[in-house]
Design goal:
Layout lengths: L18 E9 L5 E9 L5 E6 L7 H12 L4 E4 L3 H4 L10 H6 L3 H17 L4 E7 L1 H9 L8 E5 L23 E8 L5 H14 L3 E10 L11 H18 L1
Parallel strand pairs: 3-4, 3-5, 5-6, 6-7, 7-8
Antiparallel strand pairs: 1-2, 2-4
């Protein structure tokens, strides 16, 4: 489990920011209907953010993260991975996500990312970034290899290597067509230093602009305001995300 269900992003709320939000149902090119949450500044900029959640799909943490982006002038949309198998309704904290996750495919997830990207572009965004976490971090990087004309792809503690026989971003490095930012946990039992090193080397070989940052001693899911002992890592990661978006917009 990546976050406690009552967690919030470790990002200051900008009090008084003029932001609107909506629960949406989007449709992918293959006909899949899936839930999403949109947050929009009253004066939206031209840079949009697609948020790919952790394995539990769309829940409050990522809705709040979309709001934090919108408060800073970036229209953002967070979406759910499980429309094909679990429908579009809101779910409670007991949602059994693991069987749903095992039914996903990279192709299905990228079809949904494409629909979220299209939604932002239809509302005026001309630069698009993906920002993902855990399972979503991996697929955020894969989105940069999916022909979506992204400006950049950010992943927090995503696994870049092969998982259950399915190639990951490392294997697809030659297809990646946007800059990459990887924000990894140093104390992560599932994502090892050699996994990050292989990703780094593959991106180097492919000539992809990238930065891989590892926070020594930080656990998987360190980006959580309840983990006060990792506040420095969270603060640094958020600064890097904003700088990355500003640089490549």
């Amino acid at each position: 489990m990546c976050f406690d269900t009552d967690s919030f992003p470790p990002i200051p709320v900008i009090s008084g920011a003029a932001v609107s939000h909506d629960d949406l149902v989007l449709e992918a090119a293959d006909g899949n209907r899936f839930a999403a949450f949109s947050a929009t500044p009253d004066e939206p900029g031209k840079t949009g953010i697609v948020i790919l959640p952790d394995v539990r799909g769309l829940y409050r943490f990522y809705e709040e993260l979309a709001l934090r982006f919108a408060e800073r002038g970036y229209p953002a949309i967070a979406f759910d991975f499980y429309g094909r198998t679990a429908g579009v309704e809101k779910r409670d904290d007991d949602f059994d996500y693991m069987p749903q996750m095992q039914l996903t495919t990279p192709e299905g997830i990228q079809a949904d990312v494409a629909a979220a990207v299209a939604y932002l572009r239809s509302n005026g965004a001309t630069s698009i970034f993906t920002v993902g976490f855990c399972f979503g971090g991996r697929h955020s990087w894969l989105a940069a290899a999916a022909g979506l004309d992204l400006n950049g792809a950010v992943g927090f503690y995503g696994h870049p290597g092969e998982r259950n026989g399915v190639p990951g971003p490392t294997a697809h490095a030659a297809e990646i067509a946007a800059p990459i930012l990887a924000l990894q946990a140093g104390d992560d039992g599932n994502i090892l230093p050699e996994d990050n090193a292989a990703f780094d080397a593959a991106l180097d070989a492919a000539g992809v602009e990238h930065e891989i940052v590892t926070y020594d001693g930080a656990p998987h899911s360190f980006f959580d305001r309840k983990q006060e002992q990792f506040a420095d890592a969270s603060d640094d990661a958020w600064r890097r995300v904003l700088a990355f978006v500003e640089r490549y917009s």
